[in-house]
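subagent[fold] <- orchestrator: predict structure for attached chain, return tokens only, no commentary.
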Amino acid sequence: MFAHVGGMLATGLAEVTSDPAALDSRGWWAVVVSYEGKITCARFEDVRPAPHPDGPWRPPGEWRSSLDRDEYLRGVERIRAAIADGVVYQANLCRVLSAPLPDGAGIAGLGARLARGNPGRYAMTARLPGMAVASASPELYLERAGRVVTSRPIKGTGRTEADLLPKDRSENVMIVDLVRNDLGRVAAVGSVTVPELLAAEEYPGLVHLVSTVRAELEPGAGWPELIDATFPPGSVTGTPKASALALLEALEPVPRGPYCGAVGWVDADRRRGALAVGIRTFWAEDGLLRFGTGAGITWGSDPLGEWDETELKAARLLEVASGER
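subagent[fold] -> orchestrator:
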């Protein structure tokens, strides 16, 4: 069992719990939360700066998608119809790819290849009881330094900055408003701010629009209250969140698992931590390697363009997993 995140290697598993209150207790924790809300908190005794561990890796078999292109296009149209009816303003439609995982292919080997071929600002690789995850996430869900909390939602994707559309900017602003409201549920009055809005940032193979939302936790609030108020992350659900969640449950045929959940670390002793949105994320389950990809749908969405966005987001990472990078 191990976790590698933020340049730190954690070994010596001491405790595993599903209670997020543990993150306010003591010690260093690796954290994985599935989109469906299953929380795994693993406390490690030995945490030290170290390069990413390597290991054997073999390319997976043929990839299959939970939604094919025609099904995805129909899903986009159903979301647009729901927008026309006033049910939602935006919803993030996702699909899960799966491929047979060869014998001898370890998650450390995949994580090391991601670190070389598609490094993510909030990358994490972990093998914990009952799960194995390798994430190259570029998106910050929650960072905590004492009582100060920061979120950096991503919405808007193009091959280059010139490809970003007005639809991308309006979508980002909608999600920023949702994140502000979520954090406001556990923030000190008047402390929620937006220090940065609609910053174009380059990542391997694409460009994203990123905004920053910051707040100060109200007295008595800790990790359980913070996660309860903000999960699942707004950028991978939609707005209004409750309506978007219900709509997506009807449209997506398989669970998302760690994809669109949260992955990261918490140092309870130092009252610091950072959880990424579980995008650009592989996980091993039931002899299969799984990977999720999706796109935010608004009234201005072109269905084929949204499908192409899911392909763009997946392309480079699938190449890494297949040994092509």
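orchestrator: received. Logging for downstream: Residues 190 and 303 are 39 Å apart (CA to CA). The helical segments are 69-84, 107-117, 166-184, 223-230, 241-251, 303-321.
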